[in-house]
Amino acid sequence: MGGDSFLTLANQMLEEAMLGEGFSQSFLNNVVAPVTHVNYGQSVRISGFVDVYSRGIPMPVDGGNMKVCSGLLYHSKEELIPARVTANSVKLRPSKAGTTASFSPPIPSQYPGRYHQTVITLVHGLLNVSYLGTSEKPSTFSVSDVLTTDTKGSIINSLSSIDPVHIPPGYSRPPVSESKVWKVFSPQPLSQ
């Protein structure tokens, strides 16, 4: 990261940046808006820097996501001290200038602004496809991801079927008439 293009993204709205790159308004409304809405609960009028993350697709790691941490530790060539923390205390150490070291400027205890909450709920069960406004039968409903651009009248931002990390040969997603795991993004905790 860095350079002039990075600085431009940090100081420009995503919509403006993508239109400047030649993307159409239709593409923004139908492809990018659902991603920014699901991830951030906002429209395409967010910081262009956010797009760097929004376009990424989080993928499961073979053997478990904890391998990311062990891999980073291994490649950093640092040593992990396997110990349990039983207490902590503030210890001020003298800096090179002879004064006590601290954060400058100090880290604020409260961050200004309004923040958006996204709740992730994992549910094992059957999907009620009529909630999605379709008359298709659950046995033939094959959509695995539903992204929204606006939650007016909806309690969810997105719905995704969860597939196994190891996809065996010949695997196909089971129809929604079979029980499976769904990931639901919502602005508030869901009721039973």
Automatic annotation (TrEMBL):
<keyword id="KW-0285">Flavoprotein</keyword>
<feature type="domain" description="Prenylcysteine lyase">
    <location>
        <begin position="100"/>
        <end position="191"/>
    </location>
</feature>
<keyword id="KW-0458">Lysosome</keyword>
<comment type="function">
    <text>Prenylcysteine oxidase that cleaves the thioether bond of prenyl-L-cysteines, such as farnesylcysteine and geranylgeranylcysteine. Only active against free prenylcysteines and not prenylcysteine residues within prenylated proteins or peptides. Involved in the final step in the degradation of prenylated proteins, by degrading prenylcysteines after the protein has been degraded.</text>
</comment>
<dbReference type="InterPro" id="IPR017046">
    <property type="entry name" value="Prenylcysteine_Oxase1"/>
</dbReference>
<dbReference type="GO" id="GO:0030328">
    <property type="term" value="P:prenylcysteine catabolic process"/>
</dbReference>
<protein>
    <recommendedName>
        <fullName>Prenylcysteine oxidase 1</fullName>
        <ecNumber>1.8.3.5</ecNumber>
    </recommendedName>
</protein>
<dbReference type="InterPro" id="IPR010795">
    <property type="entry name" value="Prenylcys_lyase"/>
</dbReference>
<dbReference type="Pfam" id="PF07156">
    <property type="entry name" value="Prenylcys_lyase"/>
</dbReference>
<dbReference type="GO" id="GO:0001735">
    <property type="term" value="F:prenylcysteine oxidase activity"/>
</dbReference>
<dbReference type="GO" id="GO:0005764">
    <property type="term" value="C:lysosome"/>
</dbReference>
<feature type="domain" description="Prenylcysteine lyase">
    <location>
        <begin position="1"/>
        <end position="90"/>
    </location>
</feature>
<dbReference type="GO" id="GO:0030327">
    <property type="term" value="P:prenylated protein catabolic process"/>
</dbReference>
<keyword id="KW-0560">Oxidoreductase</keyword>
<keyword id="KW-0325">Glycoprotein</keyword>
<keyword id="KW-0274">FAD</keyword>
